[in-house]
Design brief:
This protein is of the alpha/beta class. The protein has 18 helices and nine strands. Strand 2, helix 7 and strand 3 form a beta-alpha-beta unit. Helix 3 (40-50) runs parallel beside helix 10 (225-231) and helix 13 (330-344) packs antiparallel against helix 14. The structure holds flavin mononucleotide (FMN) and iron/sulfur cluster.
Length: 428
């Protein structure tokens, strides 16, 4: 029996993404219509029951976030959709933005109604230029059809969505840096508190959710929070999009019920990753982008749900699953991860700006076979310092992959100290 689900992705590839008629013919805007007949707090109750853990990486419960914003005084309130999708190996929001943009628009509109907002902003990754243009077309089509703009569906409520382009900085996916970037300020994180729900976009109360999180909202309103929750399990409601890539036969975006598949299913099942090319062995897999944890073959039977993964020191993060085969050296891989963080560090704080460079220097010693036990100790101390003292999530998570590798594959570091590695020190 198929383990793939087609709920969030049910319209993908089946409709013209810029056609309101097509969207409506497959259930589109039913959620918004229903929402407009409901009290805002009743919608938030459904969100709470749905237990939708935010799909952008931090897995913060969306219902809780909505309730917090609801209880905050102040107007106007703004709705912001995070479509920066900067985590390497992550391309699941792209599918929604490109192939079913109106599901995101509908989710943002329902949020707009709940908070009495008149303006929503969607920040789309700079590299998705064509998607940005098509998304603007979709907005215009929705306005013409009365689902956005003035007096939406005769309700007397006005709501518009503005598209803002990213410019290639990974840190701008961090929610406060994202707001600075929308405000045309330098894309650097803000100090928190105050939280964005209180002092957000243009210093007003603001909701920031991920693209997939917003696309889930019409489903929740339509089917009810309980039914949505039951699509998942273990305190993790709904379905999840997973982008699978690297050394796999199929590089795909899969939709699965949370907790209803294991990591092994995602990597090896024909309908998902389809296994590793040329029959090679799995060496490790990287979850949730460069900031996420690395897992190993002995963890493959872990169910894909926040709770089960956490027990293993793993997490869903951005929804990426990058697979690496036996030909990849762990030190080489970690050097690449580190180069990414050196490049993307905004430079605002010392632990991240300098720490990543130091980690790279020490890893290079391992690569060259001149590292010692003291270097391994230093790597761990650096990691602890960066994780606890960095200003934002970028620096705090930069050593997650390194920590997993030291914990589970210390022997590979020790082998490099002795100059033993088939990739770095091949025997003639
Ligand atoms: C360095 C960094 C990059 C991030 N990039 C993204 C991103 O590209 N997309 C995203 O939705 N969230 C990203 N986040 C998480 C956001 O800060 C925020 O938690 C999220 O947009 C909230 O939406 P959610 O609750 O629906 O997940 C990033 C966080 C950090 C620290
Ligand atoms: S941790 Fe510090 S230097 Fe790194 S991106 Fe965040 S604010 Fe910038």
């Amino acid at each position: 029996m198929s383990k793939a689900v087609s709920l969030l992705t049910k319209r993908v590839g089946k409709i013209n993404p810029q056609s309101v008629e097509d969207y409506v013919s497959m259930g589109g805007f039913e959620g918004l219509k229903k929402a407009l007949t409901m009290e805002p707090m009743a919608i938030i109750d459904e969100m709470l029951e749905a237990t939708l853990l935010g799909r952008g990486g931090a897995a913060y419960p969306a219902g809780k976030k909505w309730k917090q914003l609801y209880n905050i005084e102040g107007s106007p309130k703004y709705i912001v959709c995070n479509g920066d999708e900067g985590e390497p190996g992550t391309f699941k929001d792209k599918i929604l933005l490109r192939d079913d943009p109106m599901s995101v628009i509908e989710g943002m509109a329902i949020a707009g109604y709940v908070f009495g907002a008149n303006d929503g902003y969607i920040y789309i990754r700079g590299e998705y230029r064509l998607i940005q243009a098509a998304f603007k077309e979709s907005i215009e089509a929705c306005k013409k059809a009365g689902f956005l703009g003035e007096n939406i569906l005769g309700s007397g409520w006005n709501y518009d969505i503005h598209v803002v382009s990213g410019a290639g900085a990974y840190v701008c996916g961090e929610n406060s840096a994202l707001l600075n970037s929308i405000e045309a300020q330098t894309g650097r994180p803000r100090i928190k508190p105050p939280h964005l729900a209180e002092v957000g976009l243009f210093s007003k109360p603001t909701l920031v959710n991920n693209v997939e999180s917003f696309a889930d909202v019409p489903l929740i309103v339509n089917m009810g929070g309980k039914a949505f929750y039951e699509l998942g399990s273990e305190g993790d409601g709904g379905t999840k999009l997973v982008s699978i890539c690297g050394n796999v036969n199929n590089r795909v975006v899969a939709e699965v019920g949370l907790g209803h598949v294991t990591l092994r299913d995602l990597i090896y099942d024909e309908e998902f990753g389809g296994g590793i090319p040329e029959g090679k062995e799995l060496k490790f897999f990287h979850m949730g982008g460069q900031s996420g944890p690395i897992g190993f073959p002995e963890q493959l039977d872990t169910p894909y749900t926040a709770k089960a993964l956490k027990k293993e020191g793993l997490s869903i993060g951005s929804g990426a699953l990058v697979v690496l085969d036996e030909d990849m050296c762990i030190i080489d891989y970690l050097l690449k991860v580190c180069e990414f963080f050196i490049h993307e560090s905004c430079g605002k704080c010392v632990p991240c700006r300098e720490g990543n460079k130091q980690v790279h220097n020490i890893l290079t010693k391992f690569k060259n076979g001149v590292a010692t036990e003291a270097d391994l100790e230093l790597l761990q101390r650096l990691s602890r310092t960066m994780t606890t003292a960095s200003f934002c999530g970028l620096g705090q998570a930069a050593c997650t992959a390194l920590d997993c590798c030291i914990k589970h594959r210390r022997a590979e570091f020790e082998a490099h100290m002795r100059g033993e590695c088939p990739h770095c020190f091949p025997k003639e």
